[in-house]
Amino acid sequence: MSRIYKTDFWRKMSLFDIKKILPGLFLSAMFFAACSEDSTEPEYTLYPDNDIFYSLAPNDMAANDSISANLAHGVKLVVHPNASYELSFEKDASVSDVPELQIFHLSLNSDSTAYYATKIMALQPKEVNGRYVYSFVCEEKTNAFWATSLAVDDHFYPGTTKDVKFTGDGAYSDHFSLNMIVVGKHDLTSDGVDVEELAQKTLDSFRKYYTSVTIDTIYIRYAHEHPTLGHKYPANEPWLAGADSSMDMFLYELGGWPEKDVYDALDIVYVYRIEIDKTVGYASLFSANLGGGAYSTVLVGNYVLAKDSPQKEFLLSSDEIVETVLHETGHFFGLRHTTSTMNDFLSSQDYSIIEDGLEDTPYCEALLRNGLMKRPSVKYSLSTLPVMLGHAYRRTWWKNEEQDLLSSCPDSHNFMFPATQDETFEGFSEQQLEIIRKNLMLFPHGKK
After folding, report:
1. CA distance 201 to 399
2. How far is CA 178 from CA 51, 111, 283, 325, 437, in A?
3. For residue 382, with 0-12 CB atoms within 10 Å meaning exposed, 13-18 middle and 19 or more buried, which class applies?
4. Which residues, listed in sequence order, are joined to residue 116 by a DSSP beta bridge?
5. What are the Cα distances from residue 81, in Å, to 69, 383, 441?
6. What is the pLDDT of residue 395?
7. Are 142 and 31 in contact (CB under 8 A)?
């Protein structure tokens, strides 16, 4: 038995993106595999009664008021094959009833006009240190979205669900490789570094800063040499990502390079320029996808657009490009900005998430109060991706007083600080590195 919902669920995603993501995050019913852990068959099936808009990714520690407010009536969980999960929240002492967690598998219909919620399990919690804890193991064949409800007999749990946590432990390797996909025409960086040298510098930097995991190697592939798509990407033409709104800015179709060993490397797509003012790179928060399909790439430019400058664009240095890739890959593995920006608020639709929730990454109260990061660089619309987009700004655009503000922030040395500035990045915190490792091991790739 299942329930059908309209695709208001996808209201921040275009039809193009929905169809692209089907092989990845969303399963059709034919690919469903059963999951179970201490499951009991409830007397009542209580389907989510809202639009299931908010998403919860594993190992995201940020306080999320929208998730807490909607957990009982329906939120999305991002899940992965062969992974173990715990969903927990504070017990509401004012409510004596113990809530049953009902979980539903979400799958799109054939014409992408609706999705089905199919019940797959119901769980009773364990009470641990004043929290309700639900544990389960998933045996999906690929990444998927599930939905929740909290039931007490035939009605929704009336209590509060504060401090919701969703953690996951995966079954995959803590090793991965990088694949730099060069698209179209490129120039030497402003410090005279070519593609091969840039790739080696990227590999060295990953090995220096991503210390909780192992980076095996880096590959270089050229889009014009792709065995089936090469004709779409001429070698001598500059690729302006986002210039054509009908095209996929992230070039997801190039992800999962069709070659053994390279297929499930992290794909870094290196374009001439990103057509968003003062933006150097982009990645989706918790992309959760190695091996191609939607959300499988990190995007970085050779130049950066400067609409208010007579030059219109500036050539980047190899340091700026590598730092951007390190930052955006952090988003790919589930790291938020240490201090939230307007883009972060708009993409999550939760203005309560002001920082990443980690104890060892302080956030900048002065930056939140200042208008500097309150200007969105993306116009959000129906075609905008339903996830946070990371971005990095080039140092030279900040005025002196803005530079002083950025340099005074306690998180300015962290790679996940939301803007580049004159300070030298020192790396990731221990908690950030642990999240990178845990989430890498959730993503299907290689062997454990």
Report:
1. 30
2. 37, 35, 15, 11, 15
3. exposed
4. 4, 107
5. 28, 28, 11
6. 45
7. yes
**How much of the chain, in percent, has pLDDT values that exceed 90?**
58
* Of 137, 147, 123, 130, the residue nearest 54 (C-alpha): 147
pLDDT tens for each residue of 372-407: 665 555 443 322 333 434 444 444 455 666 777 888
Strand 175-182 vs strand 165-169: parallel, antiparallel, or unpaired? unpaired
84: its two tokens = 């173990």
- Contact indicator for 94, 102 with CB cutoff of 8 Å: no
How would DSSP label each residue in 86-133?
Answer: EEEEE--TT--SPPEEEEEEEEE-TTSSEEEEEEEEEEPPEEETTEEE
Q: Token match 């401090």: residue?
A: 163
Query: If you compute the radius of gyration of the chain from its CA atoms, what whole number of angstroms results?
Result: 22
For residues 271 and 300, give the distance between their C-alpha atoms in angstroms, rounded to a whole number. Answer: 6
d(CA 212, CA 323): 18
* Contacts for 420 with CB less than 8 Å, ≥ 6 apart: 280, 320, 323, 324, 392, 393, 394, 395
Q: Is the pLDDT of residue 1 over 90?
A: no
Closest CA to 378 of 11, 25, 12, 7: 12
Rounded CA separation 311/288 (Å): 37
Q: Which amino acid, 230? A: G
What sections of 315-429 are H helices per DSSP? 318-332, 342-348, 365-369, 400-408
Q: What separation, in Å, do the N-terminal and C-terminal C-alpha atoms of the chain show?
A: 36
Q: Which two tokens stand for residue 119?
A: 């019940």
3 state DSSP class of 282: strand
The encoded tokens of residue 179 equal 């694949």
pLDDT tens sequence across 184-232: 999 999 999 999 999 999 999 999 999 999 999 999 999 999 999 999 9
Banded pLDDT at 21 (limits 50, 70, 90)? very low
Domain limits, the chain: 2-169, 175-440
- Cα–Cα distance measured from residue 298 to residue 329, given in angstroms and rounded to the nearest whole number: 7
H/E stretch holding 240: strand 240-241
Token pair for 432: 């950030």
CATH entry, 175-440, from 3.40.50, 1.10.3470, 3.40.390, 1.10.10 = 3.40.390
Judged against a pLDDT cut of 60, whether residue 54 lies above it is answered with yes
